[in-house]
Fold this protein.
Amino acid sequence: MPVALLQAELEDRLRFETLLSELSTQFINLPADRVDGVIQDSLRRVCEHLDLDLSSLWQWTATTPRNFMLTHLYRRFDGPPPPEHPDAADLFPWLLGKMMEGKALVLDTERMVPEAARDQETRRIYGVKSSVIMPLTAGGGPLIGVLSFDTMREERAWSQDLLQRLGLVAQICANAIVRKNFEESQRENEERVQLAAHAAGAGLWVMTLANQKVWATRRLRELYGFPPDETLTYQSFLEAIHPEDRAQVGREVARAVQTGGELKLEYRLLARGRARWLISLGHSYSPAGGAPDRLMGVTVDITDRRETEAALRDLSGKLIQAQEDERARIAKELHDGVSQTLSLLAVEFDLLARRAPAPERLRAHFEDFSARAKALLGEVHRLSHALHPAKLEQLGLAAAVGGLCRDLQASGVTVQFEAVDVPRALDNEVALCLYRVCQEALQNVVKHAGVNRAAVLLSASGGELRLSIKDDGLGFDLAARSGHGSLGLVSMRERVRMVRGEIDWETQPGYGTVVRARVPPRRGETA
Amino acid sequence: MSARPKVILADDHAMLLAAFEKLLAPACDVVGTFTDGRAVVEAAERLRPDVLVLDISMPVLNGMDVCRQLRPVLPRARWIFLTVNEDADCAVEAFRLGASAYLLKASAVSELFAAIQMAARGERFVTPLLSRGASLEQFLKTSAAPGANELTSRQRQVLRLLADGRAMKQVADELKVTPRTVAFHKYTLMKQLGVKTNAGLFRAAVKLGLVQP
């Protein structure tokens, strides 16, 4: 090859390489909405550079699956306008089939196969003579579109070299389109999330850990009462939180950042008037393989829910209290009224039987009446005791709980009971609370644990009363049971809450159950 | 006690009180009847009764508290509880306080006078309606089971160390108290646990899980 020619070819190649690198540079960090314009411009520049007349780009669309739609068209000369809804399956059915195979094609008018008659017809209408048609894929992924370069004035021979260069152009376009599609779907997702968040009254936030700056949606700013344009930092949020909840929020956030775990917080805002409750859910976010650099999440106002819950809790507490009061009243009436009257009746029958100079038959009747009155007294006593354990007041909590444990023997469960330093005099409500909790827990042992042994420990230490009921039985799934309010868990929790104590369960299926309650000895003191 | 014992009766139910008084009149001197516990405490020292027959649930001061307060004042008096309370634990507590008898009002006609006579002889009696035919000792043993563990933490400490084989002096050193205090704990422990020997203490400690057998 003559040197001049070689040099010309090298220059030509260099110019094209420069063009390619310019094209691909343009796409870097290009906003999605400008990608189409730059593709259009690139097709023109490539055509001008290589002296080509026509270039068209066809893409899959979400709305017409398995069809290609014409999205970009460059023409050096005017021609008939493209159809309003160009559809490759209609215009190029043969070609479409070939493209699905994923290989580039070179077409000449002279050498079109008979099966491509419809395709050739379209080519003829638009005056296309010679074409290179390339499938668009990104990184060997699925077919996303087709790019063609064509001549209109004359047939052209496509050198291997040229085909390779055009292949690079196709690659650049494909990458740009894929990225644009991804960004658009990303933005769509984000918009959907924002829309959903807005509909739920939720505010969204992202905190950059490096500078503690916080990005927040309008709704979040409304929740916290921040102006729409104020720059927000982590500190701004902490300062808006109720002082009593601030430390806990700080701890949880730090933990979520350090462990990369989930964040779940319920806290109050510092507010005049009605206290507002918020819940924040979030998690830290790490760039691929790195340490967390962001914490993001969602925040919702739960004041109404909190207030409703509190009202319900107070109500259920009052219901329990009212029920206990009523039971105690009936028990006392049975004890003081019915029992005394029945006792008197028995005494009088006995006196009659003893004194009356009556026939033996009558005497036997009186004795029988007396015996029946005594039997009835036993029933009344059991009923009264079942309603309200009077011995709580008479003998104290330890004796009453001890009696409870002993009575369980009748149900086939032996309870080992221990009382350590339990004061005789306790607040009635506190004593009744622990008595009922123990009663309920032991009933659960009888009904559900499937064992015939349990242990109860009642003790006073460190200024609080502690009660534990332990069995080595079947155990249960606490989370599953709590939701359904079964096993009297709700009522136990409620009773303990009413006397400002705490109660917890240690159990899982197959590993027995320990119920532990701690209460202050007097109502109103915290445990 | 003379042939006709002096009896105080207390019950807040006037008709029952009257019935009991009538019941006792032929064989006892009923020196006072009261309808609340406080009145009993105020009058008892002056009346110097041989026997006090008390209801348990009475206004102002209940029968058991009357007993707690008056026992030191009337060391020789006998105490009989006459109640509608059929609770075995209540009966056990009554005997723990030093009662001679625990009766139900409904059986007063057949049991009250007999109980007073037994009390006079220093014997104890529990109504068969509660004991169901068992002896008093048997009744106390089966009913008192849960209460038997009611030791204070200091008592448990002492019991554990003694059962572990320490001498009283060693226990005293360890707990930083005088040997006299340890002796006192040992005495009350033996009484409370119903044992008379060191071996008995050891067995009780094992039963309570304080030491390994």
